[in-house]
């Protein structure tokens, strides 16, 4: 049981770390001489512009930002609640509250990555001339980590739903 508990804790911490990196790091869309994320666009690794009101379709980027932050916060809250439930739950009960919060985190990262996937072409092609770059590029590792974090949080949420407290 101790090995299973250690695995679940490490898996949850890994999920949270993936969410932090995907939210913070600047590699959602990368191309020749530029990279972009949900916070800023950088050209030639030196000329960085924050995504703000002048950005076309700024509301979409705010939705992606908000849901990525929400997923990270919910994942951390789920971990803290898991630790509390670990000591408070009676033997044989399930970690339902932890599971619900972790699945909400999963849903939030799914929404963020889906919005970015759907609107990426519009976001970068409309703003390419504005920021002196081309829209040609590929998805970066932070975008991929967001989708991996989705899978990890989903699996983690299901594990908590199935898991019962034992001695």
From TrEMBL:
<dbReference type="Pfam" id="PF00822">
    <property type="entry name" value="PMP22_Claudin"/>
</dbReference>
<dbReference type="GO" id="GO:0045022">
    <property type="term" value="P:early endosome to late endosome transport"/>
</dbReference>
<dbReference type="GO" id="GO:0032060">
    <property type="term" value="P:bleb assembly"/>
</dbReference>
<dbReference type="InterPro" id="IPR004032">
    <property type="entry name" value="PMP22_EMP_MP20"/>
</dbReference>
<dbReference type="GO" id="GO:0010594">
    <property type="term" value="P:regulation of endothelial cell migration"/>
</dbReference>
<dbReference type="GO" id="GO:0070252">
    <property type="term" value="P:actin-mediated cell contraction"/>
</dbReference>
<dbReference type="GO" id="GO:2001046">
    <property type="term" value="P:positive regulation of integrin-mediated signaling pathway"/>
</dbReference>
<dbReference type="GO" id="GO:0000139">
    <property type="term" value="C:Golgi membrane"/>
</dbReference>
<dbReference type="InterPro" id="IPR003933">
    <property type="entry name" value="EMP-2"/>
</dbReference>
<dbReference type="GO" id="GO:0007160">
    <property type="term" value="P:cell-matrix adhesion"/>
</dbReference>
<dbReference type="GO" id="GO:0072659">
    <property type="term" value="P:protein localization to plasma membrane"/>
</dbReference>
<dbReference type="GO" id="GO:0005634">
    <property type="term" value="C:nucleus"/>
</dbReference>
<dbReference type="GO" id="GO:0044854">
    <property type="term" value="P:plasma membrane raft assembly"/>
</dbReference>
<dbReference type="GO" id="GO:0001787">
    <property type="term" value="P:natural killer cell proliferation"/>
</dbReference>
<keyword id="KW-1133">Transmembrane helix</keyword>
<comment type="similarity">
    <text>Belongs to the PMP-22/EMP/MP20 family.</text>
</comment>
<feature type="signal peptide">
    <location>
        <begin position="1"/>
        <end position="16"/>
    </location>
</feature>
<dbReference type="GO" id="GO:0045121">
    <property type="term" value="C:membrane raft"/>
</dbReference>
<dbReference type="GO" id="GO:0019901">
    <property type="term" value="F:protein kinase binding"/>
</dbReference>
<dbReference type="GO" id="GO:0045766">
    <property type="term" value="P:positive regulation of angiogenesis"/>
</dbReference>
<comment type="subunit">
    <text>Interacts with PTK2; regulates PTK2 activation and localization. Interacts with ITGB3; regulates the levels of the heterodimer ITGA5-ITGB3 integrin surface expression. Interacts with P2RX7 (via C-terminus). Interacts with ITGB1; the interaction may be direct or indirect and ITGB1 has a heterodimer form.</text>
</comment>
<dbReference type="GO" id="GO:0001954">
    <property type="term" value="P:positive regulation of cell-matrix adhesion"/>
</dbReference>
<dbReference type="InterPro" id="IPR050579">
    <property type="entry name" value="PMP-22/EMP/MP20-like"/>
</dbReference>
<dbReference type="InterPro" id="IPR004031">
    <property type="entry name" value="PMP22/EMP/MP20/Claudin"/>
</dbReference>
<dbReference type="GO" id="GO:0043534">
    <property type="term" value="P:blood vessel endothelial cell migration"/>
</dbReference>
<dbReference type="GO" id="GO:1990266">
    <property type="term" value="P:neutrophil migration"/>
</dbReference>
<dbReference type="GO" id="GO:0009986">
    <property type="term" value="C:cell surface"/>
</dbReference>
<dbReference type="GO" id="GO:0060914">
    <property type="term" value="P:heart formation"/>
</dbReference>
<keyword id="KW-1003">Cell membrane</keyword>
<feature type="transmembrane region" description="Helical">
    <location>
        <begin position="63"/>
        <end position="83"/>
    </location>
</feature>
<dbReference type="GO" id="GO:0001913">
    <property type="term" value="P:T cell mediated cytotoxicity"/>
</dbReference>
<dbReference type="GO" id="GO:2001212">
    <property type="term" value="P:regulation of vasculogenesis"/>
</dbReference>
<keyword id="KW-0812">Transmembrane</keyword>
<dbReference type="GO" id="GO:0016324">
    <property type="term" value="C:apical plasma membrane"/>
</dbReference>
<keyword id="KW-0472">Membrane</keyword>
<dbReference type="GO" id="GO:0003093">
    <property type="term" value="P:regulation of glomerular filtration"/>
</dbReference>
<dbReference type="GO" id="GO:0006915">
    <property type="term" value="P:apoptotic process"/>
</dbReference>
<comment type="function">
    <text>Functions as a key regulator of cell membrane composition by regulating proteins surface expression. Also, plays a role in regulation of processes including cell migration, cell proliferation, cell contraction and cell adhesion.</text>
</comment>
<dbReference type="GO" id="GO:0034394">
    <property type="term" value="P:protein localization to cell surface"/>
</dbReference>
<keyword id="KW-0732">Signal</keyword>
<dbReference type="GO" id="GO:0007566">
    <property type="term" value="P:embryo implantation"/>
</dbReference>
<protein>
    <recommendedName>
        <fullName>Epithelial membrane protein 2</fullName>
    </recommendedName>
</protein>
